[in-house]
Amino acid sequence: MKSHYSKFATALTVVLVFLIIRFPMGGSASGDVPYDYRAEGNDAPVELREEATDLLTRFNSALVNLADVSKPTVVMVSTERTVTRRSGGSMFDFFAPFRDDPFFRDHPFFRDRGPQEREFQQRGLGSGVIVSADGYILTNNHVIDQVDTITVTLINEKVLPATVVGSDPRTDIAVLKVEAENLPYMRFGDSDELQVGEMVLAIGSPLGAALAHTVTQGIVSAKGRSDLNILGAEGFENFIQTDAAINRGNSGGPLVNMRGELVGINTAIASPSGTGGFQGIGFAVPSNMARNVMQSIIETGRVVRGFVGISFQPVDESLARALDLPQARGIIVTEVVEDSPASEAGIITEDVIIKFNGRNIQSPSDFRRRIAEMMPGTEITLTVIREGQEKDIEVVLGEFPSDEIAVADQETIRDIIGFSVTELTAELAQRLRIRSNVQGVVVEEIDRNSSAAQNGLRQGDVILSLNRRPVTSVREFQEGISAIDPTDVVLLQILRGNNRFFIAFEPKSS
Fold this sequence. Notes:
It is a single chain. The protein is of the alpha+beta class and 510 residues long. Helix content is 23%, strand content 31%. The chain folds into four domains: 2-71, no CATH class; 72-304, Thrombin, subunit H, CATH 2.40.10.120; 306-399, Pdz3 Domain; 407-509, PDZ domain (Pdz3 Domain). It is built from twelve helices and 27 strands. Helix 1 packs antiparallel against helix 2 (50-70). The protein is globular and about 80 Å long.
């Protein structure tokens, strides 16, 4: 693989140098006026000059070589899970309150005519990229989240079972492993070095298995896209934006630079029309972020992030005037966690943090991400404005409190309440036809025999609050459930379509 990449890089360099020397800005190939086919006075077809044809042919061959060496590292990720769907009902819903009455329960006309829940296999499809010869694969968390089985299909159509090494919903990255050796793999590139306008390729399986290993080409349209709410309120967003065509099924596939290196994991598309189709706006998780998550998962079994221990908000014009600041910039500390790295370093409420290691803070999400990307024990310098004076404060980062509940604990929670939930992403909100600013979690799977189901909870319902406390993430919901006594009654506020209502159930009867 390395020799292929080297040959490609050499060929591309030769082509670009030739282009700069041979075709200077504002001139033509020969230095004369541009070619005018009308001056020929005949019907001869237009022909490029020989040197131009040679240049374009070599450049085209370089792109072909790039696609050729990259495609074997890309896999199709197929998943299956068992889901429950409610069917039937209509006029028989009228008799639902009386179903336990022996007359309705045993009468042949009413028996088995009410709504029923049936189990069926739901299949999913995404993409992934092999990043090591011994079978480590990167993909998106949403591709493999809460599935029962995972298989990957190589370019030679060989199908291998895959296991989840670990995943991180906050960055939408998952690490898979297949038992294989000497696999072709893609090297990591430095996503920080990407430049807007740089050419890239996207490879994956858009829209289905029939289109596996599709290659599309575009440019880097922007970097550092955040505050898009693609990953939810607690996600760490730092997306690369590209116009390379990305569609459903491309999720988890690689974004590749012109050196044949992995610079991003294709994750989401912007689809204002609501059709889910390509609009020329796609987003990829930077390879540096994906690599950090992968290494942490492989080495420690979990994602380890830096932690400073403050709550904060952006400084707008109104706050700047109220605080006598010369301009609106940075973030203001609204709370300092007791015994946290921030409190130990001497940061206090109303400090305005304007710089992180000498670099200006662009937004609250920029600050959160930069802290999270650093390892515990790292010393950082925060420049703050306090009482009109700037000062530097050294902070030694702690470890971000884990928001991941062990698999055994997740299964225990599901056994208690009879259903599982998933994050409400912008894409899922669109599919459920609810407003994008709604915060909550979505019922993913539900046991039809559970107390929650019998009291009206359905798959696809959005849970807005748990026991009168707002729920904005799966983490909050699981923490809330964990604190409930099995003998308590659970009260959920539900959004279904445009309707809001409450459902109460007893976990102990699930």
